[in-house]
Amino acid sequence: MAHKDYVARGRNPKKAPEPEKRPLPWLRIIITLALLLGFGYFLYSINNKAEDPAHKKAQTHATQVDPLPEVPKEEWEFIKTLPEYSVEVEVEVQEASDKRYLMQCGSFRKQGQAEELKARIAFQGFEAQVRPSEGSSGRWYRVIIGPYESKRLAEKQRHTLQRAKINGCKIWLWNL
């Protein structure tokens, strides 16, 4: 049996599909023409029906305005009754606390970072201290401010530091 030579035979040329011809959209053309003709007729029919505003006579009616009544004098009763109302509030006297507080604003491995934070705090008008401490994971440099006699004063200074974008300060009891 002889072998066939498929290479010499070549490829069958594929015919490109013919593009579909779209019929004219007669319905759309008819509707568009009808709308344009209708709009044109509407404009033609209202063309001369508008009244000329220059020929109108302006009629002004003189109306009598009733005078406004006199404004009555205001009487404020709360000015007279306010001194009679007084609320007595019992305020407990706070005992002087023997607790002192400190604020820790950071803890760093490198002393240079701690000194940088100390300088940023100094620009806000507070005096910070850098204290080295030995821990199980090595030497740390803590940036602390204090001591404070009340926690309220420490909170006030912490809010001042937060407005200066120095966040992360924690308030602790002083036990150094």
UniProtKB/TrEMBL annotation:
Coiled coil ranges (UniProt) are none
> Which domain of life does the protein's organism represent?
Bacteria
Q: Which residues form the SPOR domain?
A: 95-175
Transmembrane parts of this sequence: 26-46
A GO biological process this protein is involved in? cell division
What GO molecular functions are on record for this protein?
peptidoglycan binding
Task: Provide this UniProt record's keywords sorted from A to Z.
Answer: Cell cycle, Cell division, Membrane, Transmembrane, Transmembrane helix
Q: What is this protein called?
A: Cell division protein FtsN
Origin organism of this chain? Paraglaciecola mesophila
